[in-house]
């Protein structure tokens, strides 16, 4: 598509959005939330045969994203997942029973447990990554590279602004 028709299409979309009863400024939040929710539901279905719940795969992902070699304390995991320590402890117990994580006493403070992903947990994570890639391929197939670049820029800018707002309000948000 040449630039002139594309600009007309974008302007028409803006006019239509601005004329909507809800207003464009509110729709972005709804769309981002709804896309995220639906993507999670599809991902959950793909992971169901592996016996991993959303909370469990989220915990495994956090463990490997933030400190894959040294493990993480349950308190650190609770903070990252925005869960209480008791709920996190119960989840870690279920993950440990499933053979996906192990707990070991912290080398410098024996009162603390560090949580480590096991080999079995790593295999589940590899499957999660493969499912995520397949899902992204399906979702993004047929979309124009320029549109994907624009979506990436906009969402990255929104995330940065929201994080800055949280910091300004004295809240840490990752």
UniProtKB/TrEMBL annotation:
This is HTH marR-type domain-containing protein. It comes from the Bacteria. Residues 1-20 are annotated as: Disordered. One of its GO terms (molecular function) is DNA binding. It comes from Neoroseomonas lacus. Residues 25-160 form the HTH marR-type domain. It holds the Pfam family MarR_2. Keywords: DNA-binding, Transcription, Transcription regulation. Residues 1-19 have a biased composition (Basic and acidic residues). GO terms for biological process: response to stress.
